[in-house]
Predict the 3D structure of the following.
Amino acid sequence: MTEKHLSGKLHVCGASRFIGETHLPEHLLHIALVYSEYAHAEILSIDSGKAEVVEGFVCCLTSRDIPGENNIAHGNNDLQPLLPDVKVEYYGQPIGVIVAENKLSAEEAARNIQVEYKELEPVLTIEEAVLRGHFYIEPRKIECGNVEKGFADSDYSLSGEFETGAQEHLYLETQRCLAVPDDDGGVTLHSSTQSMSEVQTVAARILGLPTHKVSVDVKRLGGAFGGKEAQATIWASLAALAAFHTQKPVLLCLNRMEDFISTGKRHPFKNKYKIGFNADGKINVYQVELYSNGGAYTDLSIAILERALYHSDHAYYIPNAKFTGYPCRTNLPPNTAFRGFGAPQGIITTEFAIQRVADFLGLDAIEIRKKNCYITGQTTPYGMEVLEPVGREMFDELETLSDYHQLRHEVDTFNKTHKYNKQGIGVIPGKFGISFTAGFLNQGSVLIWIYTDGSISLSHGGIEMGQQVNTKIAQIAANVLGVSINRIRIESANTKRVGNTSPTAASTGSDINGYATLDAATRLKKRLSNQAVKYFLQHDSIVTFPDSVIFRDDKVYSDATKDNSCSFGELVSFAYFNFTDLGAHGYYFTPGITFDHKKGKGKPFYYFVFGASLSVMEIDLLTGEYNLKKVVIVHDASSPLNQEVDSGQIYGAFAQGYGLCTMEELPIDQKGRYLAVTPSTYKIPTISDIPDDFTLKQVTDRRSQASVMGSKAVGEPPLIYGLAPWLAIYDAVRSLNPESNQINLKFPATPEAVLTAVNKLRRNNDSY
Amino acid sequence: MIEVIRLIFFLNGKRVEFTSRPAQTALEVLRLLGVNSTKEVCSEGDCGACTIALGRWQHSEFRYKAVTACILPAARLHNTHVITAEGLGTPDNLHPIQQVIYENHATQCGFCTPGIIMSIFVLFVGNPSADLQEFKKALEGNLCRCTGYRHIVQAGEALIHRVHSGLLETRLFMPLWAKSAENALRNEPFPLTTSLENVPEYYPVESYTLAESITEVLSTLKAEAGKVKIVAGGTDLFVEANVHKRFHTHYIDISRIDELSIISAGKDMLTIGATATLAEILSHPVVKESLPALYEAIDNMSSTQIRNIATLAGNIGNASPIADGATDLLAVSDQVEIIGETTRCIPLSSFYMGYKKLNLNPTELITALKIPLKNYNYCGYIKTAKRKNVDIASVSSCFTLQVDNDGSILSATLAYGGVKEFPALALKTMQFLIGKKLDEDTISATQDIVANGFSPISDVRGSEEYRSELIRNHLLKHFLRIGEQNND
Ligand SMILES: Cc1cc2nc3c(=O)[nH]c(=O)nc-3n(C[C@H](O)[C@H](O)[C@H](O)COP(=O)(O)OP(=O)(O)OC[C@H]3O[C@@H](n4cnc5c(N)ncnc54)[C@H](O)[C@@H]3O)c2cc1C
Ligand code: FES
Ligand code: FES
């Protein structure tokens, strides 16, 4: 049986609680924020006179009211003020906090704050940043082989540019935090964050308190997708500041438009590639320069760029490679983590280059992809050995499942018989590295208590945001202790029970916390096994050994013959009366993760997740609109902890990738303002955008390179499958003129972008 | 001082009372009453997370509709029965719809889930034999960012299978307590009482009146000339209020004036009352039969939840350059019936006078739209938007043709949305087509004429170039459709 979502029954009844909805504390105060009206400006003055007379006004806090250090940057050398004092760096940057007795008066007061600015010229695009040399760090580099020789030895080479756009997370629950003052000057934060320890550390730093005076509690998030990894910290710190000053509980809850305007997005990239290959389609060399638009503060831009670099080989063995990355500083809201974390931007560039190779040679791109796939023992450009290259296997499975050659034939026939509609097939493999590339983050811990009635309380460092890390963790503990999952209550994540946690990110939530759970549960099982030996001797005069004791079905058996047993609860109670520690802390770190940034070599990942996917798209040549007709996905699941939870992750990631490469578009104006700031103008896929013809196969052959209990991480890897529709649109456009090597299809391929590409191609192609 | 209203309604079978401030939303009120399931995500009707089942007696029938509480004026809770996800089941005793979502792993973060449950609930209560296409259509207005929808579709398949094979009886979907709430509402609809309350001076709205008659509306409009805003569905006005914080001093809500909600079909005229909802218009048989373009236009407008509240008169009254209803009606030569000091009927084409400027006095009310029923040889609507559904068009168009026996065009109308400050007719093209035959030459000539007739602007929904291209290509698409139609 597949375990169901631990909170599923609460969710379907609308009974699950999120922050700031119902069950609010008494005397709650509300926050409205004053946001910068310029992307780049000096703050000359902030006048709160008119705001102070608004009924219900409590206080207005600015940078001057920060008792500690005005810096929320975490884990990097940048400095990011919580509230800037002299200069604003992006449109929508919070500059003042209005606290009032209710939301309406807070908003009214915020409208009455008068800020004087001296406008400065903003830098908004990668081009401008490059011109001015606005880079966060020296370029990061990965190299192998000899690039020059590679090109010299190649029959052909192609080069070009590829740009990707920003993407809004659009988690349904907006950013929020409820801050409650403690009686000793500390504060408790109920924050919608993926990084509770970061929130804790930063809020303490802002308030000038030792870390232990700030505690953070996170029950669940209404979606995050990376958007609450670094970017929950600012809101939590602002709420903490308000609670600190007012000594009352304070709620900060962004509305949708504020969330859109003020928070960071997926990084836009602009990449320059050059690829060298032989007439048979063998790739000799690939060179790419990646430029990312990091926005106004570093945030996670460097790690994101690194992951883009590590994935620029994607699933292909490239003997001669040079990948260089430049994170650019601009005056946009600091761009941030988003499912895939830079990898999609690197991967799609590589895949586009490969597509062009195929077009150039007049071969089916799937053949080029298969030909260049990693095989066992080859190493990546950064020197990590690919031990289990199942890429080929995934392609074969994909071809069989989709009946690829027949499908190709059908699509070609369709295109011959339709003048105003064309179909295309897009194929993309998956190879996604698992682990935080910041090596030290690869650690997890848990705390388990078994109470004397045999019920179990488990706290771990992972944050539940819909990905069901809680369900998986409970399964692991239940499995070790041989109890049903109902016996286990997964507690809210809380810095008081589990400290120094890593963000729940990089798809590692169930890997690191799962292993830590295994550790703690095994310790408890050992202690209970020892007690069981005593128990069976005393009760049944049976001699057994700790290793022989079996925990199964909420029972404890003396040994494999199962002649003698007691209930789990009975043994627990016995153990308690016999002075047994029924609490255990578990800990895990991922072994062997290292990287030398100077050399650009190391092992940044514990293992890879593989896969392959195919999409069929139909485009309308008169309007550029399209229809996703068919999806096939083959996914390397190893031995999933919960196959249905994993398939849910795959479906969800696919839809997000599909949105990213098609309809999700975030234009900015010359003042650095996003022009689509609500779901009425920013479109994400709806239920009708996902085709009924959708096949998912999870290959469940247990891999040697996998994680806890043979499982593999699943959060991010499948996002890549969602890029296949873009390649399918490209293929459909190309069918107009298969000879052309000049197809300018933007990413995302909005209907407008598709029509533009079609028309450009037609203009160059009179035969149509 | 503001005028507050004492709302009395039933919430999950229990009678509740609430004193509501003018122009509060239903979502706010439900929140304050402790409803946890109804989520706020966008406050503009676009995500469905706040979907509730709203039931009311209308034309002596008690009907539930899925509506988005975030843009529903709170006053409209009065004398209704509201069902939310917590009313359907409890974690220990799940409703069959909750059960199927749970079993199929169709909830992840859970934030969209109660809204999805309510959309499915209302679908099956109204249409027990719903199929998968109807299931998906009912959920187009419910965004989910986590699941990618596949598990939700699987849950739908399972549910449909259970219902069709008799394993589940949809009549049991409605909780038992619903009946007594419905009866109570029939027997004694509660009077609406108001009182005055002191509020801080920044409070933007002074009154929100649920009008009972046209006379009441007209006298209010006259008494407070220029300060009163008419609310029909409120789907435009409440987005303005919630998202853009644009309020009006007084609102007069006409949605409960039953005589305005009538749709009546005569021999050659269809009259659509000003408060008839888009959903009601869609379900009128004459619309589907005789006005296929109108049907298509409305069917592709917004989502189930919005179509359940929004009106066609409001679509016209909102004066959006891209309003689907207005664009369509322009081509099917609609008359707007307006009442003020006197009653007048004007063609829709003379109703628009500029960007958001209407031929309508602040003391006047649109009472109905009159649409002649003609024998069109072709009557089609095309909408191009970034997303297939629940999106505002980049360009939309409606084209009608009447052709005589030898194939010469007798009359042609062509209207576009998204090409100008207001929906507009392509007059030159229309004139050009008269007397022509539908051949290659005509088609290519009209494309140039039509493209030269408009100079659209660039915005987030499309650049000038894209729109110009769409103007041409839409016409070609209409011609292609005519070709297909003639081949059938
Ligand atoms: C999620 C969502 C999706 C949408 N999708 C679409 C879409 O696809 N296509 C589209 O065209 N629109 C769309 N809309 C906009 C809106 O729903 C429509 O314009 C709708 O028809 C408005 O009707 P209403 O009754 O709700 O208008 P209201 O908001 O009540 O009123 C709109 C305006 O008309 C005036 N008005 C209303 N009735 C009268 C009357 N009888 N006499 C005089 N003035 C009157 C009001 O004073 C107001 O100025 C969407 C809205 C939402 C929230
Ligand atoms: S909150 Fe999004 S539709 Fe109501
Ligand atoms: S489950 Fe998270 S948005 Fe649907």
Remarks:
- The pocket of FE2/S2 (inorganic) cluster (ligand 3) is lined by residues A 172, 223, 466; B 107-113, 144-147 (CB under 6 Å).
